[in-house]
Amino acid sequence: MRYLPNSPVERAAMLEATGHKSIEELFAQIPAALKHQGNLNLPGPLSEPEILEYFRQAASQSSRDFVSFLGAGAYSHYRPVAIDALLSRGEFFTAYTPYQAEIAQGTLQAMFEFQTLITQLTGMDVSNASLYDGSTATTEAVLMAMRITSRDRVLLAHTLHPEYRQVLQTYIQHQGVELHQIPYEKSGQLDLAQLEASLKTPTAAVVIQSPNFFGIIERAKEVAAIVHKSGALLIVTIPEPLSLGIVRPPVDADIVCGEAQSFGVSVAFGGPYVGFLAAKEQFIRQMPGRLIGQTHDTEGRRGFVLTLATREQHIRREKATSNICTNQSLCALAVTIYLSLLGKKGLKALAEQNLAKASYAARELGAFPGAELPFTAPRFNEFVVKTPGDAEELLIALREEKIIGGLNLQHFYPELKNHLLVCVTETISKSAIDRMAEVYAQHAARSKGLAQNGEAVGAIHGSPSKPR
Amino acid sequence: MGDEIFMYPPELLYTKDHEWIRVDETTGMIGITDHAQKELGDIVFVELPKAGEHVAAKESFGTVESVKAVSEIYSPVTGEVIAANPKLQNNPELINADPHGEAWLIKVHLADRAETESLMTSDEYEAYLQEEKAH
Amino acid sequence: MENRIRTARPHVNRNEDLIFEQTSPGKSGVELPPLDVPPASPEKLLSAESYRADIEGFPEVSETEVIRHFTRLSTWNYGVDTGLYPLGSCTMKYNPRINEVVARLEGLATDHPYTPPVLAQGCLAVLAETARCLAEITGMDAVSLQPSAGAQGELTGILMIRACLADRGNPRRVILIPDSAHGTNPASVTISGYEVKNLKSNSRGCVDMDELDRAMTEDVAGLMLTNPNTLGVFEEQIQEIARRVHSKGGLVYMDGANMNALVGVARPADFGVDVMHLNLHKTFTTPHGGGGPGSGPVAVKQYLEPYLPTPTVGQSSDGKYYLDFNRPKSIGRVRAFYGNFGMAVRALAYIQANGAAGLRQTTLDAVLNANYVRSRLQDVYDLPYDAPSMHECVFSDRRQVARGVRTGDVAKRLIDYGFHPYTTSFPLIVSGALMIEPTESAGKAELDAFIDAMRSIALEVEEDPQFVLRAPYTTRVTRLDETAAARKPVLRWKPQQS
Fold first, then answer.
1. Which of C336, C337, C335, C334 is nearest to C323 (CA)?
2. Interface contact flag, B69 A309, Cβ < 8 Å
3. ipTM, interface predicted TM-score of the complex
4. How does pLDDT run across C210-245, given as a tens digit for each residue?
5. Facing A105 at nearest CB: one of C45, C367, C476
6. How many CB pairs under 8 A join A and C?
């Protein structure tokens, strides 16, 4: 087996040194009845070409030839090749958690830079060295707010990512926490009147997402004023932090968290991703996750170490701020490299391109008879469009053109029938947007025709049945 | 790693969890002992209750942190907190420097002065430490 | 003393500033393709108060500087690629390069999680096949790849135990955890709303059967244990332990961190384990990455399958894969989307490369290596428990403490010999522990060099303890002031700092 560095001769020599006659003796403490007989039903052993062949096959059964307008918490942005060139250095990706600081200054300094970048982007004072993803970061932010305020009631915007809400629900289900939802108003933003009314009861935290699940930018400053008046904390979660290139960060929030996958981490069918959590200075000791601090060595040289470890599970055990052990170090490194490459100018330019592409698409798609852009408030690179005619059929028609047209919102928001969430990043060409618009045009014409005839005519594209 | 015998101030009373208390008729001043601060190492942070809060005998009222460890602090007495030592917020290292004096943790109104009768004198505490070391 | 060091030499390299200290206005490391749609004005489209004009302090450097900066940083790290990395219970084994290639294939690295399943059959197949292999290896009936890491796997498992017992009529209040357990165990239990009750280990470092009998009541939902335990010792009484827990209506959770001692040799399902998690970043070679990402799938017996996180991956009779969201008894989601898919790809590639025979040989080598190290160090370092070691061995620093030197100090001196330290001071039940897990990825020559280094240090401790106490001498920075870092935390760079 090509990964094993010992030959039979070497094994024999080592075995002899242990004083055992056979390797079986080393497993004597496992009762015979528990030793597995027979062979495990597993693939392999495969050579490299065979492994490649298997995965190439799998990769071919994918949407890689399609143009995708999917966003909703995972964003397809271009990844500069320098990222993988650097990540592939064995000293980075095969290293462990930097507990032995003297031989881990590479990881530690990079993570310190990551923490700094996150604070610069979010306008907060301190950031941790990353969490698993945006959904768990948001959950950790809520748990943190509950510890700080000693309250157990939490308000969530209805426009917070549905899966983020589900994760929070899973984590708090046995902790006696009260969760309430605040609806959105016609603009697509949080209903401030409802928020104010709901805050009459003492609350630990209010969680909003910005841009929210519909792509709408929330009024963080106004929300903060209302929230703080009631003694609660404001948590703003940001699954698309590229928006922070041109959108003012929510400096009035107490905790800003979210998902940094947009910054150089592959979409990879859902993971691994990289959550971030940043907060105001006074909440440092309640922060979950790893923290890297600056210090000096015995010669006065600057160096970095894991710090404030007493918050964490390996010391506090059952009283820890969280059970989290790992951070997403390699993904956080990718983020650090990506943001260093883009820099001030690049991030702004990229954000502006995203804004332009999405604006163009929204204008084009919303123009068709029967189509509508229901939410009027400012957006970034995602928008909601009410489709001309049946959304599911439109999506199927788009698929014929090798286009994945967006996310059908009905599954998460039953009140939004025939609404699609469409994301347009810099990776999507004008011609692809125009092709999509053409299909919208055909679909709009057909639906108009159907509406006029009032019956289900055999469509040009596929059958009337709706697959899931 | 010198093994000096530390002379514990005789005017204080001591607990098995290594806290000390200085009492007068109605109030008590509480801290942790030299033994405790040595065990913990360099103190980096202290978490203490605020004035007006209550502490109960033998129950935890806060924590003392070093780089690698956290210790609960148990109150020798029941009472209402008058004040927490403001110096410790920014200078927790005082606990290492002067654990029985400047680095008192909290001052409390004693609910029941009789509770102090079961505490150890400095002699008893020193003997207790010797016993502990032997095991 | 210099002549004792054979492998390590001081490394001359630069003092690398932070990226923010190297910036100069106007530079960028990326150039974008021209915009092919009409430009949009952010000042117009966003409200005045929403528009951000500048990101203060953000770096401005060229691609060349980024490459140099991070390349230099990497040279200050020690990785598995560099040499032996004997951290206990971390399983720092070789990270196969083919894993990195297949994980980056277009179609696998680029599919969006909300891609309609009919177009994502490749990704779904990989998830399904990885789950199947892990079930086969553990002997369990169903696997979820959703948990992002071991700690999340634990949380998922305990939540499932709770849901199952609640379904049976009483979720109960307590989980038992041996005092040798990893810190994530009690932390995960608390989040699930259970109370932790610690179980004292016996003189062999294993579960004390009398303590178990005293503690195991009908108020206890389950026992959470690691097997082999954190001393690297197999719980010989595991079947009886499971029987006693089950007889009182409780369930057994196994922390699979030490599976590197069992793969292909024994299956936890056969011990009586009801639910367990695996660490793909330990046993299954997905890279540690400097501290993550990991992956902590859970594997369960059939009766716990309904409680697995939603969705699971199913396969219909026509062979097509689908996502099953119709799971009324599920504990819910522990994260958005489906888990760390990229890690499943890597783990599957590792399993395929080995096959059943290769995985078994891997386990045999891991156990042999640990025992070889133990047999060649046990005359100079104290063995607190004489129970046989499996894939890791644990010493204590008792002999060295007599000279004023602790496990952490020996570890720092080991760095000068060119090795990453072993795990210090864990498990807590050993005073001054040295936990060594060489893994199968260490050849005899590497192990001999490590053994020589450890023996040399033991001699140094006898002859000149002060010398050991001030180590390391050959690293870029010497011991760092952790106290200062904790007292006045500086967690970010600020423009006015130099």
1. C337
2. no
3. 0.95
4. 999 999 999 999 999 999 998 899 999 999 999 999
5. C476
6. 690
